[in-house]
Amino acid sequence: MKKINKIYSVIATTFALSGMAYGETTLHVASWLPPSHPQNAVVIPTWGKWIEEATKGEVKIKIEYNLGHPKDLFTQVEDGVVDAAWSSTGYVPGRFELTQLAELPLYSANAEAASTAYWRVHEKYLSKAREFDGVEVVGLFTHAPGQIHTIEPITSLADLEGKKMRLGGGVMNALGERMKVVGVGAPAPKVYEMMQQGVIDGTFLPVCEQRTIRLNEVARNLTLLPGGMYQTSFAFFINPDFLDSLSEENRTALLSVSGERLSRLAGAEWERCGDEALQESIAKGVQVNVVKKGDPMAEEFVRVAEGLDEAWLASVKDSGVDAESALSEFRDIAMKLESEYKD
Q: What does UniProt give as the signal peptide span (predicted)?
């Protein structure tokens, strides 16, 4: 542990020194998916451009990779090992419960609309519970609807019973338990290797990951449920001391190009990636089973997911947040925005 802390200290010092060069401030943002992933190739660089423009070039972004498991990024940002990061709240069970509001199934909205709604509802309701204490949350978003990627084809959700499926926490885990799969916990970047080696039989992830982690090479069967199974909750967050180190003008400028604007961008890019990845996978011969609303498998999933809302509401009843109103408002906003964004 002392050795690890020493390494983190060296990293933090290196970041601090590089940030002081040339009179500029560098916001070091930790990431964990491949550099080609839209969050790293598009979202963070675009956010960085917005920040640079808003601060007149005084604050810039640098992406840092390979800082460990994404679940540890919350602590690393709190401790000042790195200035900022993004990660899934589902990787930290027990700390984040209200964030599962954005993951619950049986409603339909794309990631762009859901992410915008998520930010608004967090600001109005969820922030009161202070689940992000220790960091400054500057963006909240979901990925596109999670779907079923398997080595072998399935014709029913019952085919997944007893299968080893990678699960990433949150509502995904609850669904896996209800489907009686053998859950295997691992971050998304490990899935390709696990499937290639036969450690798992499949995974629940958005279609984008057919491209970004090359699932189209190992998960040759893709089952698309109407509206998907769930949408994982993610957050962008910054060390408060970093924000305090900025001038008031630059702090205000940075935050002005974050929040809802960043949240919407992150969701939209994940959705766009999925649309493109689906066509690529079809072209590469991946067998795609498009399940339509009312089909037996769609009805099967409705039965699996029944009661999840009530279970979540019961789990957060002591949070001090009007969770029922928050959930209802989240879905209303998301579905309304999806219609608006299409126009």
A: 1-23
Q: What is the dihedral of CA 48, 51, 52, 53, to 10 degrees?
A: 120
Question: Collapsing DSSP states into helix, strand and coil, what is residue 247?
Answer: coil
DSSP of 82-109, one letter per residue? SSEEEEEGGGSTTT-SGGGGGT--SS--
pLDDT of 23 reads 63
Q: What digits encode the pLDDT tens for the residues 108-127?
A: 899 999 999 999 999 999 99
Tokens of 58: 């005084």
Domain count, the chain: 2
CATH number, domain at 261? Answer: 3.40.190.170
Distance separating alpha carbons of residues 108 and 145, to the nearest angstrom: 9
Domain shared by 126 and 186, yes or no: no
Quote the pLDDT of residue 2. Answer: 41
Q: Residue 320 has what DSSP assignment? A: S
Task: Write down the pTM of the prediction.
Answer: 0.92
Specify whether 6 is located in the same domain as 131: yes
Kindly tell me the number of DSSP H helices and DSSP E strands found in the chain: 15, 11
